[in-house]
Structures are given as structure tokens and as C-alpha cells.
Amino acid sequence: MTTHRSDVDKGVMADAAPLVLESRRFGRLECPPDALLTFPGGLVGFEDLRAYALVAPESLEPLAFLVACDDPELAFPVLPASWAPPDYTPEFPPEALRAIGAGLDDPVELLLVVSLAPDTGTLHANLRGPLLINPATRIGCQTVLHDAPYSLRYMLTPG
């Protein structure tokens, strides 16, 4: 069951009450406005889902989950880009910054979608499809770095 708020889709988070989501994995989630993110273009393969809650269970820190507001059973595990190798310095096209309402000198947050390899139990990060987020507007986009030398499945090591 999902409680939908149209202002989530618009990136408007003013003084709204928490959004309540229910999922089998996370149970009842009360998501404050500052935990809500809007991806106007969706995520790769999930273009129709634009509103997400960033859920960060303390027991799994620094791992967090992007939970789709319109389908709370769908959640993407993410890590801050600080978990990428030190030489990870992706260049974003100007249209990606415009899409999130950020200028060249504005601070942005960068998240990496991660996956767990079921056969080895190792954690891998997608360095080619980072999530770029404007913390001021809570609007984000997934940028696919086609010509970059980064891995789709960079193996993370405990640090």
C-alpha cells in the first residue's frame, strides 16, 4: 500500500507530513520530506517510477535504499560515491546538471547503485550509472557514462 502525494513528483517538499509507505522488506516506513527524492526521468529500466524515498537503516550504514514510492516493493541499494576507487572522478554532461537544477559550482550528491553477487556474496557498485542529486531541490537523475572507463560491476572491499 502506498500513500501518494502529488508534490513528491514535482520535487516540492515544503512543510509536508511524512509520506507513509508499506513494504514486505521494510514494513511501515514514515518518510520525512527530506528523505524524498524525485527523478523526473526515472532510473534506467524504471522510467515510469519517479518518486523515491531514501531509507538508511542504521544497522546497514553506510548502505541505504532507494524505495520507489509508487511500488515500495522495489528498492535499489545505494552507497555514497566515497566508496568508489580514489580515481573515480566522473564528468557529468551539462544537461545532467541542468536536469537537477544545479550549476557547475553547486554542490551535488553522488550515489552508486550496488548489487550483491549471490554466488560469492561480494558487493559490486555500478560506476557507469551513478545517481546525481541536487541536495537543495532533492531532484536527481541517473547519468549513464557510456564512454567512461568505469566498471558496471566494481567489486567493493570492506574499508
Run of helices and strands: HEEEEEEHEEEEE
Shape: globular
- The CATH topology annotation reads as BH3618-like
The major pleated sheet works out as: 9 strands, antiparallel
The average pLDDT score comes to 86
Number of strands: 11
Strand content: 25-35%
Pairing-aware structural class of the strands and helices?
Answer: mainly beta
Tally of domains: 1
By CATH, the architecture is named: Roll
Helix content: under 10%
How many H/I helical runs?
A: 2
Briefly, what is this?
By secondary structure, the protein is mainly beta.
Overall description:
- This protein is mainly beta and 159 residues long.
- It has one domain (6-155): BH3618-like.
- It has helices at residues 6-10, 94-99; strands at residues 19-23, 27-31, 36-38, 51-55, 64-68, 75-80, 109-116, 123-125, 131-134, 139-142, 154-155.
- Strands 3, 4, 5, 6, 7, 8, 9, 10 and 11 form a nine-stranded antiparallel sheet that branches. It has a two-stranded antiparallel sheet with strand order 1-2.
- The longest helix is centred in the middle third of the chain and has 6 residues, at 94-99.
Task: Please describe the structure with a list of short key phrases separated by commas or semicolons.
BH3618-like, 7% helix, 159 residues, two-stranded antiparallel sheet, disordered N terminus, 9-stranded antiparallel sheet, mainly beta, 31% strand
